[in-house]
């Protein structure tokens, strides 16, 4: 749609800038999807909890978007005393500038009683499995839902039907109690997860009393299924296998088809998605197995306590499936190696000629991460935390208003030697740089503790170039990469190769490569909600001010203030810019 009025503009001869059409979203405007966010008492795993819900449930309704098509998603904040934003996890480079859903990074949060119209356009080649979730505080523990991008092109893999299997955590404490505990000088941990839920259902892992049911995934004998696994957990890193179904084939990771890889189990962190092909048993095989229901076994990895949870794979039967009994002893073994799963193994389905080689890398940014204990317990990246309370206004807003001087920030970042500007707490990059970003785990300052951190990148997906123990050594890693074909991902795990080491000692790394092609403000952060709240977030700015505002200049002032006129409410129709309906402006 770029250049809606090119002929006219050429006739006038004075093309100066592009600007998204400014449209009053009154009653004549129909969003493609509507999500309503409330906070209310809600029951999961036989436990009532005050939770943030999308359309009254957790998970919220499934969204289906089309490749290359703009979808308008209206998000209402029906809560009385909390802000909300919605993030389209994995799709962030393909949303309009203010639509990435990161509070104080890409937009002002949606105030109570207000709504915001998100403009999202999945790119061609990104058909796959995603999810949406709130990006405020601990809300995403319940405020999340599946987002599937469909393609007009047929899938390279054939299957009869698909099933969504979204994993989430249950915590007994409320979001507010958890947030207060984590940010208090009197630090209080959230507690461990009470249950890993499947599509919102399940039973407490340790004391499964009551009548609440395990999730049932129904399949028909002899059919082929695409199971879409979504890591919507707050904390849990999960090992997952299916009883008597020893082999399935991975075909998608984070929205991209992969070459098929056979496996008997998955390891899925918060933020990750995998699709697998599962061939359901035939009637003959079911007779041989003497059962028509089988457990999904979900086991937490890398936490002080190991919790095991279940869901049920059910085949049609005259006997009702038993959804309230859980096995006394877990039926399946759990791999004792919790790091390195599928590293250097997954390959893109379609050959990717765009992978940046080491010689193309223009800048390597090593980000040391560790826990620090002073007045508070915080997670630091390059010596600093990032919390939503740090910026006075969103970075993207400051780029538009000119308050943020990205050129000066870039100078400071380069001078620091870490690629980090400690004044703005930004990692700025110029267009067309090729970055190698290395997350380097270090022991906590006092205890030497080491944990798993599933790092998530907003913006265009990065090439994951692996992970390993100790200190990152690019020469060594180049040798390992030889002959491999790195995939693009949006979430990969910085593993704990041990539970503790000496304070500040390097202990494990994860490396990414990214071509800086999509101007904007992109967060890169650990996806464990507790860690985010404790400061484990970074903000990258791709492109200078000119590159970022090129998408629309000027932008309407309604985006630039909290509760501004781009945000609607019960009595006010917002004035919204259609960034993908760009016209050239003449003066
Ligand atoms: C969410 O609920 C609203 C009404 O409350 C409804 O209009 C909308 O269609 C629902 N959204 C989805 C995706 O089901
Ligand atoms: C939610 O439940 C708590 C007790 O668990 C109760 O105190 C509170 O009033 C309930 N809130 C609402 C809005 O129903
Ligand atoms: C909502 O966001 C605004 C703007 O950042 C902030 O001033 C306010 O404190 C937030 N409200 C809540 C309840 O967190
Ligand atoms: C710290 O928090 C714990 C748990 O919430 C509480 O039991 C304790 O009294 C608190 N201590 C102080 C000094 O506030
Ligand atoms: C089960 O656990 C929950 C929370 O962890 C607790 O509130 C409840 O009292 C426990 N029930 C039993 C029977 O132990
Ligand atoms: C995993 O188990 C195997 C066999 O049981 C054992 O040889 C190996 O040392 C274990 N590895 C770890 C990291 O515990
Ligand atoms: C890290 O902790 C030390 C004390 O152990 C403290 O002096 C320092 O200010 C802390 N740094 C940050 C950024 O929290
Ligand atoms: C930033 O630097 C570039 C050159 O690298 C220059 O073209 C541009 O005008 C500068 N922008 C601002 C706002 O200073
Ligand atoms: C930024 O880093 C420099 C050099 O280490 C230091 O002098 C300065 O105080 C830091 N500024 C802030 C705001 O942390
Ligand atoms: C990296 O590994 C190579 C061997 O492959 C070694 O020669 C080099 O010293 C290592 N670099 C560092 C910084 O340890
Ligand atoms: C990559 O591996 C091949 C053998 O598999 C070897 O011939 C080649 O020299 C290696 N390339 C590099 C850059 O190490
Ligand atoms: C609704 O939005 C308009 C325009 O931003 C504002 O003037 C009005 O105060 C808002 N109403 C409420 C109840 O916030
Ligand atoms: Cu983390």
UniProtKB/TrEMBL annotation:
InterPro entries membership: Cu-oxidase-like_N, Cu-oxidase_2nd, Cu-oxidase_C, Cu-oxidase_fam, Cu_oxidase_CS, Cu_oxidase_Cu_BS, Cupredoxin, MCO_CuRO_3
Keyword Nucleus: no
GO molecular function, a single term: oxidoreductase activity
Any coiled-coil regions, as ranges: none
Keyword Metal-binding found: yes
Record-linked SUPFAM superfamilies: Cupredoxins
UniProt keyword terms in alphabetical order: Copper, Metal-binding, Oxidoreductase, Signal
Taxonomy, superkingdom: Eukaryota
Residues of the Plastocyanin-like domain: 37-152, 162-283, 407-541
Signal peptide feature range: 1-20
Family assignment from sequence similarity: Belongs to the multicopper oxidase family.
Protein name as catalogued: L-ascorbate oxidase
Species the sequence originates in: Penicillium arizonense
């Amino acid at each position: 749609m770029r250049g809606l009025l090119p002929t006219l503009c050429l006739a006038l001869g004075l093309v100066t800038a592009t600007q998204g059409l400014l449209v009053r979203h009154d009653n004549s405007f129909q969003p493609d999807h509507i999500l309503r966010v409330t906070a209310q008492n809600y029951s999961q795993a036989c436990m009532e909890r005050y939770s943030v819900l999308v359309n009254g449930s957790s998970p919220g309704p499934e969204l289906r978007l089309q490749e290359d098509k703009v979808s308008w998603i209206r998000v209402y904040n029906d809560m009385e005393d909390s802000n909300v934003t919605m993030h389209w996890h994995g799709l962030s480079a393909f949303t309009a500038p203010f639509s990435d859903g990161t509070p104080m990074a890409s937009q002002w949060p949606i105030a109570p009683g207000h709504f915001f119209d998100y403009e999202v356009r999945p790119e061609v080649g990104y058909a796959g499995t995603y999810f949406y979730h709130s990006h405020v505080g601990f809300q995403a523990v319940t405020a999340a839902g599946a987002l599937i991008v469909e393609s007009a092109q047929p899938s390279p893999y054939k299957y009869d039907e698909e099933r969504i299997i979204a994993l989430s955590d249950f915590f007994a404490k409320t979001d507010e109690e958890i947030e207060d505990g984590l940010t208090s000088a009197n630090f209080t941990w959230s507690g461990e997860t009470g249950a890993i839920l499947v599509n919102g259902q399940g039973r407490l892992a340790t004391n499964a009393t009551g009548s609440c049911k395990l999730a049932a995934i129904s399949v028909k004998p002899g059919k082929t299924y695409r199971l879409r696994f979504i890591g919507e957990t707050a904390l849990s890193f999960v090992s997952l296998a299916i009883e008597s179904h020893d082999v399935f084939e991975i075909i998608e990771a984070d929205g991209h088809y992969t070459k098929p890889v056979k496996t008997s189990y998955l390891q899925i962190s918060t933020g990750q998605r995998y699709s697998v092909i599962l061939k359901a048993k035939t009637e003959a095989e079911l007779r041989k197995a003497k059962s028509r229901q089988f457990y999904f076994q979900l086991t937490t990895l890398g936490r002080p306590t190991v919790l095991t949870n279940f869901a049920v794979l059910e085949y049609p039967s005259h006997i009702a499936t038993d959804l309230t009994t859980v096995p006394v002893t877990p039926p399946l073994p759990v791999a004792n190696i919790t790091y390195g799963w599928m590293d250097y193994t997954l390959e893109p389905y379609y050959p990717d000629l765009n992978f940046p080689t080491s010689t193309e890398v223009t800048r390597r940014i090593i980000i040391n991460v560790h826990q620090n204990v002073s007045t508070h317990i915080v997670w630091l990246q390059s010596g600093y935390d990032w919390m939503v309370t740090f910026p006075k206004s969103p970075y993207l807003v400051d780029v538009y208003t000119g308050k943020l001087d990205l050129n000066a920030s870039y100078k400071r970042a380069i001078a620091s030697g870490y690629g980090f500007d400690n004044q703005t707490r930004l990692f700025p990059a110029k267009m067309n740089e090729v970055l190698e970003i290395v997350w380097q785990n270090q022991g906590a300052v006092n205890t030497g503790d080491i944990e798993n951190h599933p790092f998530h990148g907003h913006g265009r997906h990065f090439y994951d170039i692996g992970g390993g123990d100790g200190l990152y050594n690019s020469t060594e890693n180049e040798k390992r990469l030889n002959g491999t074909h790195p995939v693009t991902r949006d979430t990969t795990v910085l593993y704990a190769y041990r539970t503790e080491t000496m304070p500040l000692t390097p202990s494990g790394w994860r490396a990414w490569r990214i071509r800086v092609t999509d101007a904007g403000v992109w967060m890169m952060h650990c996806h464990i909600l507790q860690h985010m709240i404790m400061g484990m977030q970074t903000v990258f700015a791709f492109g200078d001010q000119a590159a970022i505002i090129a998408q629309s200049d000027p932008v309407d002032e309604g985006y630039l203030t909290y509760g501004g006129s781009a945000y609607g409410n019960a009595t006010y129709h917002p004035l919204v810019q259609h960034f993908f309906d760009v016209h050239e402006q003449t003066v």
